[in-house]
Each structure stands twice: as C-alpha cells, then as structure tokens.
Amino acid sequence: MNIHEYQARELFHKFGVASPGGKSASTPEEAEQIAAQLGVTQIVVKAQIHAGGRGKGVFKNGFKGGVHLCHTPAEVRHLAEQMLGQVLVTNQTGPEGRLVSKLLVAEAVDISRELYFALLFDRAISAPMIIASTEGGMDIEAVAEHTPEKIIRVPVDPLLGLQPYQTRKIAAALGLRGSLMTQATKLFTALYKTYTETDCTLVEVNPLVVTPDNRLLALDAKFNFDDNALYRQPAVVAMRDKAEEDPREVAASEFNLNYIGLDGNIACLVNGAGLAMATMDIIQHFGGKPANFLDVGGGATKEQVSAAFKIILGDKSVQGILVNIFGGIMDCDVIAHGIVDAARETGLSLPLVVRLEGNNVEAGKRTLANSSISLQSATTMAEGAQKIVAAVHAA
Amino acid sequence: MAILVTPQTRILVQGITGSFGAKHAQLSLDYGTQLVAGVTPGKGGQFFEHNGHKVPVFDTVEEAARETGATVSAVFVPPPFAADAILECADAGLALVVAITEGIPINDMIRVKHKMRGSSTRLIGPNCPGLVTPGEGEHSHGGCRIGIAPGYIHKKGNVGVVSRSGTLTYEAVFQLTSRGYGQSTCVGIGGDPVNGTSHLDVLKMFNEDPETEAIIMIGEIGGTAEEEAAAWAGAHCKKPIAGFIAGTTAPPGRRMGHAGAIVSGGQGTAAGKIAALEAAGIAIADTPSVMAETLLRKWGKL
Fold it and tell me: Of all helices (H) and strands (E), which one includes residue B38?
C-alpha cells in the first residue's frame, strides 16, 4: 500500500520526525489559509498523486507543472485554482493522467546539503536495515552501483531496536557533527519508531536535508506498509486512496481475491499463488500473453469464482480464459458448478479452457460436459495452455 | 527413514477447535496420522472427537507435550496470535513447529526468527502447506500429514520434494505418483519472506537421508534462497535434482499472491534463479507440467 506525500508528512509530525511545516488543502481557500498560517516567505505547492515525475507533468487544462514555488498566500490560491480538480499527466501516470484532489502546501526550505536515509525490511538478514548516504536527492541504486563506498549499511537487531550509538555512528558517517548529531539521533530514533509502530517495510527519506541555519529535516519520503499487518493499523488503512489503484484490483480485493492486471490477452483463474504464477508462465511458454495473475485461494467459494469471472471480463483486452484448478482438498465438482454459473451469469462468449484435477474430478468434468456452456476440457496444465493459446489465435 | 517426521511421529494441533484447524485435524486423523493432542487456551479438558478418535485438548503446548508425548506442532491459529503460538512451542522444547497460518506480520516474524536462533526447535513456514511423509497403506494411508496437503495424492517412495508453493507441490507429487514414483517426504517451506526453514536446510536433510534418492525443488521469484541452495547443491549434493521456478512473467515490484514473491531492485528474478540452478547442475523443468518427467530423465529412469 502506498500513501500520499502529505500523509507521510502527517506521520512524521505524529512521531516527531523533524520536517518542514505544511498541510494538505482540498480547496483554493484552504490552500491560501494554510500558506498564511505557515508565515514563511517561500512556499511550495505540490499536487498529491501517487505517481512520480510531478514537477515536469502537465495538466490537461494546459497548466504546466505539478510542483510550484511561490511567496505569498495569494499566489498559492491562484496556483491552487489551476491545479485542484484538474487531471495531471506525468511520465509515470500514462496518458489518462490522475485527478488532483489535494495539494500539499508547505514551507520551502533552503538546502545546504542533501542526504539519503532509509529504513527497510532486509530479507537476507530477516531484520530492519538502515541505508544512508551522503549522496541525497539522487537515484540511490545508481549510487550503490557506481560508488558503493558512499553507502552506509547498519542492521538493527529487532529484539533490541535501534540503539543510540548506532544513530551516532550513522550521523558521523554522514558528517553530521555538533548540534546536527543530536538532531540526527532524535530524527533517526523517531523514524525507527514510525517504521515499527506503523508496520512499515520501507521508509525512505530522500532527501534528508541540512538547511543553512543548521536544521536537519526530512524533506520527501516514501512509505511501504506490510499488508499482513494492516489489520492492526486502522490509521494506515484510512490513508488508502482507492482512486490511485487499478479499479480491477480494488474490486478483487473486496472478494479476497489476489488479482494483478497485466497487458496480455489470455486471462487465467487459478487456485494457489505459486500455481497462478506458473500458469501465467506456461501461457507465455506456449506463445500466448497472460492478461492477469489471479489466485482464488485454497478454499474458493462459488461466489468468489463468479466474482473472479466478472473481474476478468471487465478487462476489454481479454480474448480467452484458462481456468486451472488443482483441487487437492476442495471438491472439483463445486468448482465446476461455480464456473458454469459464472459463465451463464456473465453470458460468456470468449473461448474458455478448463483444466481440473484432484478431488472428485470425474464429477466435476461431468458437470462441465453436461452444461450448455461452450468450453474445452484439459487434463494437464500444458494441454490447457496449448488449447487456450490455439483458441485465441484462431479467434 | 524420511526427513523431519515419520509415520510414528506424534503431533499436536494448535487451534484445533477453530474451523480451519478442525477440518485439517480431521483429515490428518483420517489419513492415519498420530495426531495425539490439541491446544486451545481455555478449552483444556475438552476432547476433539472425530470418527471414533477422541483427541484430548489442552490449555498449553507444554501440558499437551508432557501428557501425550507429542514432539511436533501444527499451528493453525489466526495471524494476530500466531507468533506467540510459535514461541510457545520453542519454549515447550518441541522438536518441530509447522506454521500453516497465512498473513503473519513481518515485524512479528522477524522477532520470532531472532528469538529462535540457537533454539533446538525447528520452524517450518509460516504460510506453508506443511509436510507429508507418506504411509504404506492404500493412497499412502498411515503416513504423517501435518498441515493442509491432500494426503491421498502421495505414495511412499524415494523422491524428496521441497517447495515454497502449496499447489505447485501437489502438482509435482501428483505427477510423481501418477508415474508410479513415490515420495520420502514432501516439505512446503512457505511463501513468506521470513521463514524458519529454507530450501538449503531441506536439501541438506534430503542429501543425508538414505531413503531419499532424488529431489524436486520448486522455487519462485523473490529473495535469494534458491540461489543459495543451488550453490550448495552444486558442490555437495550427491543426488539428482530437478527444479522449477515460478514467476518468469511476473512484473517487477508487484507481490504475486505470496508475501515473499516479489522482484525488487532487480533481485529475485526467475531468470536469475533458473541460471543459478542450471549452473549447479540442477535440471530445469521448462513448464510445471514436466516437473516429474524432468526429474526422471535426470535420474536416469526415462
């Protein structure tokens, strides 16, 4: 799950991570008010969408730029009038762009140094890892590749938490001395608290800046949250912006289905994540292009199968469907009835290949054969994939 | 011998009175597994009854192990309580804890993993189908089934199977059994990014197990566990291995169902894993339909 920049700032304020003052605005009046309250002479106004490349983006009304610097509340209002309610197109949004319904209005700080600081879940050591660098504001992967000596790595013992000496070690490596070292210890500790208490898998501050008046501030941040922990993070869940997500994936999540849209034309419906991935792979192996990943889970119900069909068919590029079920425990006949009902309800006219194997498979195959639905049966995954690829090519 | 568990192993189920735990406890009892105890806090003294079996339920793992001689636990408790349930098994000194639960927060699992370092208790999973050592009866009846795998598709034999995915494991087992080749033990290590037992751990056990003659190893995108296992196998494993890696077509940066199945920062790609396996002399199945066939060729049976 991703969040907006203004929401990241809100988390920082809540956990005491030093960052420039600012708030989100939904109307030009609100934007003007926030600017007035800030009481500063340099203000930045930023369109709040999840996609990057905002600064160089262009609004569909012709207004240029999703990020602007200005000096007075009146200017902020004037900018907000041209940005709010408009669609911003950036190199990451695709041509359809994204509707801007909120702006971040914040203090624009002068910068004397740009640093990089991230806390992330490191799978190799099963623990949080801090990655820091003196090369802030840049693509950190490029820094790691070309100048690995400029990357500092400090693992955190999850049973102890981040220790003060570790924060000083990082500060020293970043050249943060004197009062900046004290600020760094406070800021890194607050970031670690943010990371653990909101169940993040990534908090990336880029850049972390030093101002000419010697303030250490987190300027821009990227958060990733652990989906498994959302049940205990209602405040994080409340930050979810479904308008920023693929509508098919939002619909799927409402039925507890795991769906990811791809750009091919052969849809698949599978039980189990590993088998679902392997089904995409085998479609490609036999010359087709998978349209999606879809795992209906180990104990799929008739309702889920039906919902899955509707989501698949909502994708207009789909030209054929492969159902691949290995029913170890679940009854293949129940699945067969679900498929038949879903095909009827949706008036399915596309080629459909069903591979069923496992528990009570003979009854399931009879149910499919005796239905009036036009479909092909397959015994193995390879046979199923070959049949659907051939059917789509012939259509 | 099989690895980890034998048909004689006595197991307990944590969360036996929940619907998911109860259903699979029944299937294990039907399979002939020595399921000797259940644990549900607050329900100690009750019995879990099924088809003539009367399994005592205890309040704590320690009591269940002491009273029944159970040495292995299957964890079916919901995610918010699962980390605690796993640590309870380590505290009680069980030999093995198999965490079936899907959806345990990463922060909980990293604490469990660090706490269990140096413990004599082995963890398999979480988010795994469990393990099966097939029995000698009809449809492998009488074996040790821990978790959620369909027992009847197995057959007692000499192939070891290790996998991160449940349904792909069943696919491989079904192919083997259909061709008349049985399994020593099938181990689902789970689809989470933090797990207890790795591909490498299981390969080492299969390598030492006299009953295991050949191995199928199934991996998927995300992490580097398959590469590490392959590097070791190339240098040390005496037995033929066939491998399959799922996720060739998975887009980078997206989590493919399993919490651990994600390509990030160019790490954990299917292509990289396949290359590592091939470099180690592991025969790659081009599609999941030919996992058994690929092994049998490598093994000289075809």
Answer: strand B35-39
- Are A233 and A279 found together in one domain? no
Catalytic residue among A5, A30, A204, A357: A204
The DSSP output letter for B102 is S
Task: Catalytic residue, from A5, A6, A30, A116: name it.
Answer: A116
Closest-CA residue of chain A to B174: A358
Instruction: Flag whether residue B221 sits within 8 Å of chain A, measured between CB atoms.
Output: yes
Which residues of B are tagged catalytic? 258
User: At A96, phi and psi to the nearest 5?
Assistant: -75, -20
Same domain, B194 and B59: no
Contact B115 A277 (CB under 8 A): no
Residue A12 included in any domain: no
Active-site annotation holds for A116: yes
Instruction: State the residue range of the domain holding A327.
Output: 246-394
Whether the per-residue pLDDT at A148 is higher than 90: the answer is no
Q: How far is B33 from B47, CA to CA, in rounded Å?
A: 17
Look up the CATH number of the domain holding residue B89. 3.40.50.720
Nearest 5°: phi and psi at A375? -155, 165
Phi-psi domain of B32 (left: phi exceeds 0; alpha: psi -120 through 50; beta: other): left
Residue-wise pLDDT for A198-217, tens only, equals 999 999 998 999 999 999 99
- DSSP-assigned states of every residue in A86-117: -EEE-TTT-TT-EE---EEEEEPPP-SEEEEE
* Residue A353, min C-alpha distance to chain B (Å): 16
Predicted structure pTM score: 0.93
Taking an 8 Å cut-off on Cβ atoms, the answer to whether A227 and B153 are in contact is: no
Asked if B292 and B162 sit in the same domain, the reply is yes
Confirm whether A204 is a catalytic residue: yes
User: Coil, strand or helix: which one is B4?
Assistant: coil
Question: A362: how many CB neighbours lie within 10 A of its CB?
Answer: 10
Give B107's pLDDT tier (boundaries 50, 70, 90).
very high
Chain B residue numbers with beta carbons less than 8 Å from the beta carbon of A157 are 114
